[in-house]
Every structure is written in structure tokens, then in C-alpha cells.
Amino acid sequence: MTVDAYRFCVIGPGRLGSAVLAGLQASDLTVSAVGVHADDDAHLFGELPHLRVRDAALEADAWWLAVPDDEIHGVAGRLAEALPTVRRGGASPPLAIHSSGLGSVHLLKPLREQGVRTLCLHPLQTFAGEPTSGLLRDVPCAVTALEESDLQLGEELAVRLGMRPFRLADESKTLYHLAAVVGCNLLVALESEAKRLMDAATRDSRGLEHLGVLLRTTLENLLRSGEPAAALTGPVARGDLGTVRAHLRLLDRESPRLARTYRALSLEALTLAAPRLDDEQVETLRKLLGAGERP
Q: Which range of residues forms the domain containing residue 269?
């Protein structure tokens, strides 16, 4: 049984749902409708029928729930209540997918209890731009399911959409999602602080432009090496105590909150750099960053 057997309906065509819709269509899979659960969804993908959740249960046999995490279980329940009691002759077992990075596949339990195959596909991608099928191309995709056959179906669907699937245990999803948030969302927050500092130093508003080459090269070095320690540069990596003290004096005076962040991240940097520093440098930096010594 392959993904070609299904008629898809994407419920919740926001940024992610719209990219999924575009990906399904670009992959020549059958999309029978768009499922809307809010009035402001109705203008998207106008060439497809727009159905409320209960009607989507009748017009499709594969539902991709691209709704907010808190709504997945409720939408699954409404779909389950509306499932037809008699299915098409020779039809494949229905399929339900959600794309929460954090949420358990058990959020689809109301559908699973009705004999629907359930799985989670979570693309490791940010969907801040124009929703196109290209946003899914060559993107790692976490596949979570309770049955081997469903895992295989999820992998097939991910590959069909141009993604690179890997299996993720349901009980590991919180840790997985935390890794993604630290690596993506909190990186943006950290660069917001870097921009603020650079704007103040240069007295213009082009901080990210000034930092752009440095950021790009650092990320390229990190991804090319595959080892954070190999990409680490800067004062902690060099054991430059004077520079670290100067930074901390300024931060403790001007931005105590950022000073705490600087200390925490610099301690992590010190763990990476320790093998290339002598013991005295490591110990002095550890005391300084742990606030055991005044800068």
C-alpha cells in the first residue's frame, strides 16, 4: 500500500499547511480538499474545495493536521466523530498525520481508535517565508509512528515530498523539539542582542548587515566540520582573560540579564575549548565566568 492510494486533505492551511499542500500537489499526489477550521483560512488555495472539519472526513481518506499543537487532539476528535461507518470498497485504511515537533502521535488517538493509521511528520525547517513546495526539498523530516508499517508509510511520504526522513521515538520528542528551539528560535533571539550591541557601537541600525559575513562564515564552519569545538573561535577559545573581563565589566554595568547569558554560554564554550588551553587558563576562566571572581 503506497501514498498514491490516498486522497489528501490538509486541515489548517497556514504557513506549514500551505507548504505541505504545495508539496503534495508538486508530487502528483491527490489533494481533494483544504480543511479549514477558522474563517480566516478560507481565502487560501482557492482552486480547491474548502471544507469544514466534519465534511473533510467524508471527502478525503488522508488528513494532514497542520493546526496549532493545542488544537490537534480536538480536530482529531471531530474528524473521528464524522468518519463514515461504511468505507469505499477496496479502500486503504484511512491515514492521519500531524506535524507538531513536540506533540505525541497519541494526539491522534481518537482517529486511531477508529482504525485510522496515525503518524507524525515534522520537517526540520522554518516556515517564515512564502509557502512553496521548495521549502520541503532536502529538509530532514522526523517520522514518528507506533507501528512499523506506519513508519514505512511516513518515510515513503516524506521522500515523495523531497524530504530526508529519519525515525524519532515518540518519547524523545520533547528533547528533539528543545534541540530545534535552541538551535533555531533562540539563535534568532541571541542575534537580536548582537544586533542591539552592534547598533549601539556603530550608531546606526545596520548591525545585522555588519555581522552578516561573520555569522554566515561561522555557521558554514560549524556545518562543514560537524563538530562545534572545531568551529569555535574567540576570546574563550584563546584563553584571552583580559577580553573576557572587559566584556563582563561592560555587561555587568549595562545589561545584567545579558551578562548572565554571556556567562552561561561562555562556560559551554570553555567546555569545548578546554582541551586546547592549559589548566591554569581553564580554572581562571571557570572562576571568572562562574562569578567566583570579580571582572
A: 182-289
> Comparing C-alpha atoms, which of 33, 55, 54 is closest to residue 44?
33
CATH (domain of 38): 3.40.50.720
Tell whether the torsion through CA atoms of 68, 69, 73 and 79 is positive or negative. Answer: positive
Does 26 share its domain with 135? Answer: yes
Angstrom CA distances, 46 to 42, 68, 195, 220, stand at: 8, 22, 40, 40
pTM above 0.85, yes or no: yes
Question: Do 13 and 142 have their domain in common?
Answer: yes
Q: What is the pLDDT of residues 250-279, one digit of tens each?
A: 999 999 999 999 999 999 999 999 999 999
Count of domains observed in the chain: 2
> Same domain, yes or no, for 141 and 186?
no
Assign 59 a pLDDT band (cuts: 50, 70, 90).
confident
Distance CA 5, CA 114 (A): 19
**Could you tell me if 192 and 163 lie in one domain?**
no
Average pLDDT value for residue range 176-204: 96
Q: Is residue 176 in some structural domain?
A: no
Cα 168 to Cα 140, 142, 144, distances in angstroms: 12, 6, 5
Produce one character per residue of 195-207: b if its CB has 16 or more CB atoms within 10 Å, e if not. bebbeeeeeeeeb
* Lookup: cell for 119: 503518524
State the CB neighbour count (10 A cutoff) for residue 28.
Answer: 8
pLDDT value of position 42: 45
What is the biggest distance separating any 2 CA atoms in the chain, rounded to whole angstroms?
A: 77
Residue 55's pLDDT is: 84
- pLDDT(76) > 50: yes
